[in-house]
Amino acid sequence: MTVRKATVEDADKISRLEASAFPKEEAASLAAFQDRLRVYPDHFLVVEHDGEILCCVNGLVTDEKDLTDEMYASADLHDKNGKWQMIFGVATHPDHRRQGLASDMVRRFVGQAEKEGRLGVVLTCKEYLVHFYERLGFVNEGVSGSAHGGVTWYQMRLTFTRQKN
User: Fold this and answer.
1) Beta strands of 18-138 (E only): which ranges?
2) Would you say residue 136 lies in a domain?
3) Which of 58, 64, 88, 147 is the most exposed, having the fewest neighbouring CB atoms within 10 Å of its CB?
4) How confident is the model at residue 90 (pLDDT cuts 50, 70, 90)?
5) Count of structural domains, the chain
6) Per the domain annotation, does 133 fall within a domain?
7) Which run of H or of E encompasses 12?
8) DSSP 25
9) In this structure, is residue 95 part of a structural domain?
């Protein structure tokens, strides 16, 4: 297995992975991934094996403190010098779940954000995943303002101890 940053050429594979991992109402489209990869490819990490992407973590960087639905809709809201790394999705192929891929990838993504001098990482998740992210150091901030996919989301934040200057 190889962990690497994604490229625009990976958009189709990432879109198929997303469709296998999330309900249709929540999954990002191929066009959304193409747009995001065009604007912020350095903020996509994938695990690949035999040409198949098994897990992907991605999200933009912003000065905004909270993750908003508008961020999902517009890759142009990415600010490479932003204070906060957002995570839009952690998608793992259903046949490869419960193998530690998602935990490892989130840790790597968080480590990258910390090396880049961000204040921390923010994501939203469903209630059943709150404990998973808490084990990775995230703090549950309660119900998010997000209406993405028509479900209830909880905002999770991991704040780094060494703050960006």
Assistant:
1) 44-49, 52-58, 61-62, 84-87, 89-92, 120-125
2) no
3) 147
4) very high
5) 1
6) no
7) helix 11-21
8) T
9) yes
Does residue 41 have a pLDDT over 80?
yes
Q: Residue 37: inside a domain, yes or no? A: yes
Q: For the chain, what percent of residues have pLDDT higher than 70?
A: 98
Q: Residue 51, by phi and psi: left (phi above 0), alpha (psi -120 to 50) or beta? A: left
Question: E strands, 88-138, where?
Answer: 89-92, 120-125
Q: How far apart are CA 6 and CA 8, in angstroms?
A: 7
Distance in angstroms (rounded) separating the CA atoms of residues 39 and 41? 6
Beta 120-125 vs 84-87: how paired, if at all? parallel
CATH of the domain at 93: 3.40.630.30
pLDDT at position 19 over 80 = yes
Measured CA to CA, the distance from residue 58 to residue 128 in angstroms comes to 20
Amino acid in the structure at residue 108: R
Token pair belonging to 10: 């990976």
Coil, strand or helix at 89: strand
